[in-house]
Specification:
Layout (H helix, E strand, L loop, with lengths): L11 H14 L27 E12 L1 E16 L2 E6 L3 E4 L5 E4 L2 E8 L8 E10 L12 E11 L4 E12 L4 E15 L2 E12 L2 E16 L2 E10 L7 E11 L2
Antiparallel strand pairs: 1-2, 1-14, 2-3, 2-4, 3-6, 4-5, 6-7, 7-8, 8-9, 9-10, 10-11, 11-12, 12-13, 13-14
């Protein structure tokens, strides 16, 4: 299975563009804008507001030699403190047709995100940590507790465009293989309620050729705290997924 399953977001710039537009009509008052961690692979540098619960999920089809359908992709984010959130990756339902036809649950993950103070030159940053727990079905689990850590940095380029970069390190599987994943993404606010992105992702692993993936998509805010998205991608190397496409939804409940 390729590592690049969508768990990601609308750019921070898009959210602030939306907030500005809403403020001009008095629609949102002082409500924090919705910022998600999908549909791109790069996490946002923004945490959910204190006491809020944010639900993100979707459906993906992946062609990686074998076909896989992933339903759910659920991520639950809870604002525990200012700039600190708890994260729960609820298992997805995964169906594959090769090497054996099977359907089962993926692994559960638990983690956190902490937003760092912005730098003087305009970079927003965050660190994330997570543990993937071997709760999935026989064909959908790593059989081990897999730790991972992420550093992400984001910066506005102009009034409509932002740039984000991320590095993720993980230890996976029975052989404790070291994995490094990097992403770089440009996001563009098409209009106040619509944003697009273009992303390049790479994966490095012991004894495995480097995987490179090109990813793009759009996100639309259909209500002030309700977002939908569609995305697709292509592998540029043999070890990346040949093709994938997906759609998702995100919603936040404020206290």
């Amino acid at each position: 299975m390729p590592y690049l399953l969508p768990t990601q977001r609308v750019r921070r710039l898009f959210a602030f563009t939306l907030l500005f537009a809403a403020a001009s009509t008095g629609a949102f008052a002082q409500q924090a804008p919705l910022v998600t961690d999908r549909p791109d692979f790069t996490e946002s540098a923004v945490t959910v507001p204190l006491g809020s619960i944010q639900f993100e999920g979707g459906l993906s089809f992946v062609d990686a030699g074998a076909d896989a359908l992933i339903f759910g992709e659920p991520l639950i984010r809870y604002g525990l403190r200012d700039k600190l959130e708890l994260r729960f990756g609820v298992p997805s339902i995964v169906s594959i047709d090769d090497p054996v036809d099977d359907t089962g649950l993926s692994d559960l993950s638990v983690g956190f995100k902490y937003a760092l103070a912005p730098t003087a030159n305009g970079w927003s940053m965050a660190v994330l940590g997570a543990l993937s727990l071997p709760t999935g079905g026989d064909n959908f689990t790593s059989d081990t507790i897999d730790p991972s850590a992420i550093f992400v940095a984001s910066r506005d380029i102009n009034d409509r465009t932002s740039f984000d970069a991320q590095a993720r390190g993980a230890i996976v599987g029975d052989d404790n293989d070291a994995v490094l994943e990097t992403t770089a993404v440009f996001a563009y606010a098409i209009r106040p309620d619509l944003s697009g992105f273009a992303e390049l992702a790479t994966r490095f692993q012991d004894n495995v050729d480097t995987g490179v993936t090109l990813h793009t998509g759009v996100s639309s805010l259909i209500q002030e705290l309700l977002q939908v998205d569609v995305h697709l991608g292509f592998g540029l190397t043999d070890t990346a997924a040949d093709f994938f496409v997906g759609a998702g939804i995100s919603y936040r409940i404020d206290r």
